[in-house]
Amino acid sequence: MDPDLPRATRVPTAGFAGPETDPHVAPGLARPDVDAAGAAGLALRLYGLRATATELGSNQDRNFLLEVHGAGADRRVLKIDNAAFGPDELAAQNRAIDRLAEVGVGVARVLPGLDGSPLQVAEVSGSRHHVRLFEHVAGRSLVDAGYLPDATLRALGSVAASVDSALEGFEHPGLDRALQWDLRRGADVARSLLAAVGDPDRALRVAAAVDAAEQALAPLASRLPVQPIHGDLTDDNVIAAHGPVTDARGLTVIDFGDLALGWRAAELAVTCSSLLHHRPGDPLAVLPAVAAFHARSPLSVPEALALWPLMVLRAAVLVGAGWAQTALEPGNAYASERMDHEWLIFETATCLPTEVATAAVLAELGLPAHAAPTAADDAAPGALGMLQDAYVLDLGVESPHLAEGSWLEDGIEERLVAAALTRHATVVLPHGDPRLTRTAVNSRTAGATVPLALQMYTNVPVGLRAPWAGTARTVGAHSLELRAGDGTRLLLDGVVPAHRDAGRVGPGDALAVVPASYPGRSGAASIRIATADAPEAVPLFAAPGHAPAWRILTPDPGPLLGLPARAAPASASAEQRRRERLLSSAQERYFADPPHIERGWRHHLIDADGRAYVDMVNNVAGIGHSHPAVARAAAEQLRLLNTNSRFLYRSLAEYGERLVALAPAGSGLDTVLLVNSGSEAVDLAIRLARAATGRRTMVALREAYHGWTVGADAVTTSAYDNPRALASRPEWVHVADVPNPLRGRHTGPGAGAAYAAELAGELDGLARDGRPAAAFICESVLGNAGGVLLPDGYLRDVYAAVRAHGGLCIADEIQVGFGRMGSGFWGFGLQGVVPDIVTIAKPMGNGFPIGGVLTTRAIAEALGEEGMFFSSAGGSPLACRVGLAVLDAMRDESLAENARDVGGHLRRRLEELGERHPMVAHVHGAGLYLGVELVTDRATLEPAARETASICERLRELGVIVQPTSERQNVLKIKPPLCLTRESADFAVDAIDHVLSTGW
């Protein structure tokens, strides 16, 4: 047996009836002539069911949904099979269904008739037809689901593998069929259907694609295993439970009408081709389905090589069959409606060269790309030429040359090259390293950032020699191609060819000269290698998603010039696996498939492939990622001094004075204590309150998050962060109701007073029980809930009640302070109150760990009675200089004002979404702390939690970083850096609108 074929049996394809003679592969089959009333009559006569029938779609059979009358009313599906299909074929389908059910694959079982047989016979309009009754499967077909996420694609690939594994070894006389959907004869069938295609341009495109696919399959056909396959395992024949599909367990396979012997790889090709219209223009989006199939049922190399040509053939047959069926049966609405998406399948399958798509499959599955070394593999290092004094210029995502957003400047590459040429004879821009200089911001798709060529500039001419024997030919005045005997090509552009005419050259013969370069006036010389499997046209750059394929097809030419080979970058999934080996599973992460982020600038994040994202969630980098002033302040201070706050140095007092000056006039908030994080700040605030009041009880709100230290966690009541939060609070924490004006017990104008009155009563009760409150802690805006604004007057009344009982009021401003709300520096200003203790952290250091407490002198001094206070890095010279730089930037760049203006515009745009999308129940917040609450029902406010998570994943694909928040995880958390522009805000809202419109 062929070592590549460890499973299944190979059978010859000769001897099949041709498409012109076999009724199964005729241009179309008219459906049985039966209407809903006739179907209801058959249900009663054959199955004893009184039911109302509603027709379902089908190309060549008739399917009806039966609503059964009477007690225990239920649903069934009645199928009247085309007369062209005999009893052996249908019996094989029934047995296959039973076989799959036995191994746990979800299927709709066949139900017996009144006579106990699963296969009934009836006369319909003078023709004899078989009739079957199936279980009804609740859920939805995925065909009209719009966008399908990667998790769903993986589930479909997995279920296809399960079906094929279960059918392996299945034998039945009804399997030996000749169908138009058998891709072993796909090219012949597609050509036979071309005459039906009414659009001549489309017919020509289909014909060309069929020829190319047939040519690609010819050397593989005899090596492809054959076995029983479902044959039509598509998005239309898989029923999914309502809600996001995350694995194969929620899928049910239906419609075994095309069950037959076929290439095993064709099963996967049919599934994958059906998925293409869900991601139009993005053919490689089906790779998760391919990988999932391979994980359960490994593909051989020949099968992997055949997969994409088979997908193209399937698409071609679909297009032709759709035209033929509508011509045969103009009233077949099902066939007519499917024609547009069948053409979309074809366009998507063919929008990328098959060679590239096939290489992408090999790369995804980790299968070998070449059976033998290529001419490039055999060439000696430096065989093209040895570069002298060559400098490899880094234009990648982590390049030190592209700081402070210079990568966005026009002409930056040329300026950097020109500067490097003043120090070196030759400057090389390497192959394969994603270039940050080609990154596009505010873009739904990744730009073509990955170079497929090595580019070089030189001060002096550089001669290039043939690295292998072959045929050289000029392609224009400054381009040359050298083709080896195995088909490997060396492509040179921006050179002076040594020969004007095509001819044979030997290793070491002169090929071309790279002339002296003048960046900005003359372009770079480009050197590419293309393997024999590469398409004729090879671009200079590729998008990151296509790069793994192109790296196979266009290997690095650097070694031919004596340079070290560039290693392919690790994938984001590999980096995630590396992290998982080292860290606890308790470590939180964003996204199921997280991007590998390595750079930030202002409100943009950039991944290792040069893909830019609008960061709508990162309030830690309050003044923007990689702020130059913060970077300079940190670097300068590190060169001078960094020690701890027990030493005397100027910056600690300077920073303290600046913070105190930001407190409301007359507030008495005149003392600062500095730590390293928000959790520490909350912990310290609790200690201060206890020391100042001599009490222990803390009052916190339900659904709150305040940190992870022992003290901060004690007042954290979020059941999402800790499902046992309410049951596990220590006895010194009293939990009060959260005043959520949308979801709480009290709504409307009087909600604030009602909630405050309830809390005042609880404070009375604590006092009566001998547990008077030391302090009440609350975020000034409910950040953990998604920026929910407190009801009017709530803090005013609560603070008064707390103080009346001798307690203190703590405002947690860690998320909502520092200008974020757009109306003053502090979030508590929205309620017109002044707290006794303020906790601050996240934005203080713009990502550098700084936290602090702002309070009164009397409260701060009470801490001294319990012992000395000290934090090793809190208030260090470095922390203070960074903190001062942040405050300077906020002032100089008017960032609080930007939060007000851009935040107001953003909120209005988000509220407009609610006018078009029922899922948008409410927009919370103010300034640049907003939350979009998503529900499945506006009347009941049922949280759309699973949908929200999926929407965030989809937004990531479109270049927007947003995360779910709230106890119910159904709020889009929007708290970007305060430098967010109106342009990027609009881009983000448009992306949300697109996702809500097209699916997730």
How would you sum up this structure in a few lines?
The chain has 1000 residues and is of the alpha+beta class. The protein is 34% helix and 18% strand.
List the helices and strands and how they pair.
Blueprint: H1 36-47, E1 51-56, E2 62-68, E3 75-80, H2 87-102, E4 110-111, E5 120-124, E6 127-135, E7 140-141, H3 150-167, H4 186-193, H5 200-217, E8 226-229, E9 238-240, E10 251-253, E11 260-263, H6 264-275, H7 287-296, H8 301-328, H9 333-350, H10 354-365, H11 375-378, E12 390-392, H12 412-421, E13 426-429, E14 450-451, E15 454-458, E16 462-465, E17 470-474, E18 479-484, E19 489-493, E20 496-497, E21 503-505, E22 510-514, E23 525-530, E24 541-542, H13 547-553, H14 572-582, E25 597-601, E26 604-607, E27 612-615, H15 628-640, H16 650-661, E28 671-675, H17 678-693, E29 697-701, H18 710-714, E30 733-736, H19 751-768, E31 773-779, H20 794-804, E32 808-812, E33 837-840, E34 851-855, H21 857-864, H22 877-892, H23 895-916, E35 920-926, E36 929-937, E37 942-943, H24 945-957, E38 960-961, E39 963-965, E40 971-974, H25 982-998
Parallel strand pairs: 12-13, 27-38, 29-30, 29-31, 31-32, 32-33
Antiparallel strand pairs: 1-2, 2-3, 3-6, 4-6, 5-6, 7-9, 8-11, 9-10, 13-15, 14-24, 15-23, 16-22, 17-18, 17-21, 18-19, 19-23, 20-22, 25-26, 26-27, 28-34, 33-34, 35-36, 36-37, 36-40, 39-40
Helix pairs in contact: 3-6, 3-7, 4-5, 4-8, 5-8, 6-8, 7-10, 8-9, 8-10, 10-13, 15-22, 16-22, 17-21, 19-20, 23-25
